[in-house]
Each structure stands twice: as C-alpha cells, then as structure tokens.
Amino acid sequence: MLLLLLKANLGGVTCLMPMISISPTLPVNIRLWMASFPKHATSWPLIPATNYFVPSTRNQQGKQFSLSDAAYFVFHSPYNKLVQKSFARLVFSDFVRNASSIDEAAKEKLTPFSTLSGDESYQSRDLEKVSQQVAKPLYEAKVQPTTLVPKQVGNMYTASLYAAFVSLLHNKSSELAGKRVILFSYGSGLTATMFSLKLNEGQHPFSLSNIATVMDVSTKLKSRHEFSTVKFDETMQLMEHRYGGKDFVTSKDCSLLAPGTYYLTEVDSMYRRFYAKKPVDGACENGSHSNGH
Ligand SMILES: *[C@@H]1O[C@H](CO)[C@@H](O)[C@H](O)[C@H]1NC(C)=O
Ligand SMILES: *[C@@H]1O[C@H](CO)[C@@H](O)[C@H](O)[C@H]1NC(C)=O
Ligand SMILES: *[C@@H]1O[C@H](CO)[C@@H](O)[C@H](O)[C@H]1NC(C)=O
User: Fold this and answer.
1) What is the structure's pLDDT at 285?
2) For residue 70, which of 11, 9, 14, 151 has the smallest C-alpha distance?
3) What is the DSSP string of 262-281?
4) Atom of ligand 1 nearest to the CA of 100
5) Is residue 276 exposed (0-12), middle (13-18) or buried (19+ Cβ within 10 Å)?
6) Rounded CA separation 212/159 (Å)
7) Whose CA is nearest to atom 7 of ligand 3?
8) Pick from 266, 248, 258: nearest CA to 284
9) Low-confidence residues of the chain, pLDDT below 70?
10) Where is the signal peptide (predicted)?
C-alpha cells in the first residue's frame, strides 16, 4: 500500500536523497568517527545528513531551508526519546544558521550555547535539555502526529521510518494534501538519508483519505494479542531452538494468524520448507501443504 502511495505522489515530489556514507573498506576510520560521539552514537548521522540537505534545498522564496518549510518531520524511531532528541537537534541547527523558524524567546534560551564547538554541543547535557524545551511546541505540531505506531509497536528497524509515516497518514489523512514532509532514515549501517515528499491528493483509490481508511491502523493496533512474559519467553526459546534447524513440524494452532496468512508447517530432514495458507474465511487448513522451498 505504501509503495503505491509513494509512486502516486512522485509526480509532484521534490525528492532529495543526499547520502552520507563512508567507504566500508576503511573500518578504522569508521570506528574513530563513531568513537568521537560516544554518548550520541544514535544521533550522529542526523547532522551530516542535515548539513547536506539544508544548503541543497531552497524554499519557494529561494531562502535556505528551515524547519518552517515543512509541515511534518518523520524520523527513524528506535524509541521515542531519540526522536525528541533528534528533532531538538534540528531546532538547534536552525538556531545556529539563524533560520526564521527560531523566534526571539527561543534565540534567547539558545544563545548561551552558540559558542560551543560541534563536538562540545554533542556532549552538552544542558543544551540537550534546553533545546528539547525550546523545541516542544514545534515538536507537538510537526512530529507528534508521526509517533503512534512506533510508540505502540516498538523498534521495527528498517520499517520504523515508514511506520512513523503511516502514523502520520493515519492521523492527518486528507489534511496532508499539498503539505511537505521531511523523512529521516538511518540504520545501524553508515548511510543516513534525509528526503522530502510533497503529498498530493490522489484520485480514488489513491486518495489520502482512502489510503488511511484501507490501512485501518486503529483496528490493526486493537487486534494485537496480549501475552504474559512467560509465554513470550517460551516463544522466543522455541524460535531460538529452531533457528536454522530441520526435522520439525510446527504447531497446528493458527488461531492467531490473520486470515489469508501463509505459514510454515514443516521443515524436513533436507531443510525443505512446507507452507500452508490460512483460508480467508477463518479456520485452518489441515494437510494440504505446498512446498515453498
Ligand atoms: C539573523 O536574522 C535576522 C532576521 O532574520 C537578522 O536581522 C539578523 O541580522 C541575523 N543575525 C545574524 C547574526 O546573521
Ligand atoms: C492524532 O493524534 C493526536 C495525538 O497526537 C490525537 O489526539 C488525535 O486524536 C489523532 N487524530 C486522529 C484522527 O487519529
Ligand atoms: C488437523 O488435523 C488433526 C489430526 O489430523 C486434528 O487433530 C486437528 O484438530 C486438525 N486441526 C484443524 C484446525 O482442523
């Protein structure tokens, strides 16, 4: 669904993909660079990506891009605190560039930090606190609507950014027409990407409101099952035990699977995998395995 949406919107999109990457053949340098941001290993790719993104992006008046030029900011979200910190860092970097998004009151609060070097600014707890405080109203308006699914589901790694984007579509749907959204993606690798989408109100079935309806995020979140930690532990142990294993059949109980789901039924002695599909009308099939090797 999401892929279709991006495609449907590409026509009207300003899509910048500045990539930050370091040659994987230079592992020593990489380690040194990581080591220079010990406490901020998680936010280190944000600033280089921003530093690329901002000067290369002009708003409609030809001015340098600032936080005021986008309606929403969507972040890779291992956990929400990091999203808050990352956004606060963007606010500080707007301040350093004297961008229009920073009002007089905010300027006053951030001025004591204006002489910090880059490294010092990463180390400063006080700056972290003050910039989060200054960023709060902007965070509420531009970031909060993107946080629902990552907060509810936890870290999804690659999917995390797109789950945040889905949250925004769910929360704002057709209000997003004509709005610019900045997305920031990075993984545990060495690539960070900041890019910008401008959303258009597509035609049915690709209208923003229909996409939100079809995604049906509330129902999906509500249909999750709650388990005790003991059961969770048992499940994880089973998974660990079977990982890369052979010669086992899986539990016949597929009551928790959504209708239409393909599921593993068996791995035989030659590591061949067998699957079945839960019928769309509910009950589990029994026996008709297809070889999905
Ligand atoms: C910052 O921007 C304001 C107006 O946006 C301008 O009056 C002021 O001179 C700028 N300050 C610096 C240090 O560039
Ligand atoms: C959007 O999110 C806000 C909280 O961030 C919530 O109060 C509001 O009800 C949500 N709106 C929709 C349509 O989900
Ligand atoms: C599947 O078959 C087994 C025995 O062949 C039976 O005990 C079980 O109830 C069946 N499960 C379903 C969901 O039909």
Assistant:
1) 55
2) 14
3) EEEEEE-TT--EEEEE--TT
4) 5
5) buried
6) 18
7) 252
8) 258
9) 1-62, 187-192, 282-293
10) 1-15
Radius of gyration of the chain (CA): 23
Does domain 4-222 bear CATH number 3.30.1360.120?
A: no
| pLDDT given for residue 103 in this prediction | 93
For the chain, the structural domain boundaries read 4-222, 229-290
Question: 86, exposed or middle or buried, with CB in 10 Å at 0-12, 13-18, 19+?
Answer: buried
Q: Is 217 in the pocket of ligand 2 (CB under 6 A)?
A: no
User: Which ligand approaches the C-alpha of residue 265 most closely?
Assistant: 3
The pairing of beta strand 192-198 with beta strand 19-20: antiparallel
- Total-model pTM: 0.75
Q: Which is nearest to 272 in space by CA: 238, 248, 288?
A: 248
Q: What does the pLDDT read at residue 59?
A: 62
Q: What whole-number distance in Å separates Cα of residue 106 and Cα of residue 101?
A: 10
